[in-house]
Design a protein that fits this description.
By secondary structure, the protein is of the alpha/beta class. It has one domain: Rossmann fold. The chain is about 40% helix and about 25% strand. A six-stranded mixed β-sheet has the order 6-7-8-4-9-10, with helices on both faces. Strands 1, 2, 3 and 5 form a four-stranded antiparallel β-sheet that branches. Helix 3 crosses helix 4 and helix 4 packs across helix 5. The longest helix has 18 residues.
Length: about 250
């Protein structure tokens, strides 16, 4: 079986703010077609890493390739192929979902016909087909997160970068959103970089994970591989939380 190509690859990227290293010589890869769980405590440098991958902040040292492109030199091309859902999604509350997605489509240079087809499909995919004319201000947080997924889907992305997508959701909302992410990966082949503190959810859907602590990638691999490295037995014997805490305590 041929090994899948890297859709994200970093080469010792570092981000310094004064004397502080928010990200420290970070090298890792996300392979095409996988869900990669990006883990670490607050302040580990995860969000800063995501911003560098999107070309929204410049690394102090090192480089990265996203969809085969340098996001610092080809930021607009990268943004066309990557869907990004930040931790806190902001919307105009007086718009409904259809108006919101029409606005986003216009920003992405789509024709009205092309946008209409993609918007209807995206709303149906995320389960908001019957709420397209509802004001976004009346949406629950879970509905807003699903609208955020719809927003990135209209670009037909090769890669989704999701920063704490289930933060603040109730258990049912979190389960539905994680299920949606998994179905997009399995049915459409979209690669997903999932940054989250909800380790149980990450364990259910991730093919591989990376554990970042104090700006460094402390571990990268399948849950089974990491369990064997730390405990000598496979991942079925240990939860991702137990594996994560082992790395965290030994740092």
């Amino acid at each position: 079986m041929t090994e899948k190509q890297s859709i994200i690859k970093t080469f010792g990227i570092t981000k310094r703010y004064g004397r502080q290293r928010a990200v420290d010589s970070l090298s890792f890869e996300v392979r095409e077609g996988e869900i990669f769980g990006f883990l670490g405590p607050n302040g580990a440098g995860k969000s800063t890493t995501l911003l560098m991958l999107l070309g929204l902040t410049r690394p102090t040292e090192g480089s990265a390739l996203v969809c085969g492109l340098d996001p610092q030199r080809k930021a607009m091309e990268v943004k066309r192929m990557v869907g990004y859902l930040p931790e806190n999604v902001g919307y105009y509350g007086d718009m409904d979902a259809l108006q919101t997605l029409e606005f986003i489509a216009d920003l992405n240079g789509m024709t009205k016909k092309e946008a209409g087809d993609k918007i209807r499909e995206a709303l149906h995919t995320v389960g908001l087909g019957e709420n397209g004319r509802k004001k976004v201000s009346a949406y629950s947080r879970g509905m807003k997160q699903r609208l955020g997924i719809a927003e990135v889907l209209i670009k037909d992305p090769k890669l989704l970068i999701l920063d704490e997508p289930t933060l603040g959701l109730d258990p049912d909302g979190a389960i539905r959103l994680i299920g949606l992410i998994q179905s997009l990966n399995e049915e459409r082949g979209i690669t997903v970089l999932l940054s989250s503190h909800h380790l149980e959810q990450v364990q259910k859907v991730s093919h591989r994970v990376g554990i970042m602590i104090r700006g460094k990638m402390m571990a990268e691999g399948s849950i089974d591989t990491l369990a064997r490295e730390k405990f000598g037995v496979g991942g079925k014997e240990y939860t991702l939380e137990e594996i994560y805490m082992k790395y965290f305590q030994e740092d």
